[in-house]
Amino acid sequence: MSFFISEAIADATAATPAAGQPDPLASLILPIGLVILFYFFLIRPQSKRAKEHRKMVSELQKGEEVITSGGILGKIVELKDDFIILEIAKDVNLTVQRSAVQTIMPKGTIKDLK
In this structure, are residues 85 and 77 in contact, taking their beta carbons and an 8 Å threshold? Predict the structure, then answer.
């Protein structure tokens, strides 16, 4: 016998415990939706750009004019496994990592700048 809670109220709450709890499947919809949004708007486009950059870097050829990530414009003189040698001016060569190449420029870009 309880002086604070009547037995009728205690029996009613014990008979329906699931009435106050939300559906566990419904509570997972928001986190799963956020993961899907992150994948399609952040992860997938970034991996696609990285794949395109790897393909561009692997297909570099001697004589192409490129811009490095540091903003240096030069013509490829020699290709090595991980490095390229750029001619940035007459008799001035730089050794740069292949991955530093950002953009391949159209032929004649260097001549147009002079």
Answer: yes
- Which domain range does residue 24 map to? 7-56
Instruction: Give the total number of structural domains in the chain.
Output: 2
pTM for this structure? 0.68
Handedness of CA 63, 66, 72, 73 (dihedral sign): positive
Residue 90 belongs to some domain of the structure: yes
Q: Return the structure tokens found at 66.
A: 């490129």
Q: What is the pLDDT of residues 26-46, one digit of tens each?
A: 888 999 999 999 999 999 999
From 55, 95, 1, select the one nearest 47 (Cα to Cα): 55
Are 32 and 39 in contact, with CB atoms under 8 Å apart? no
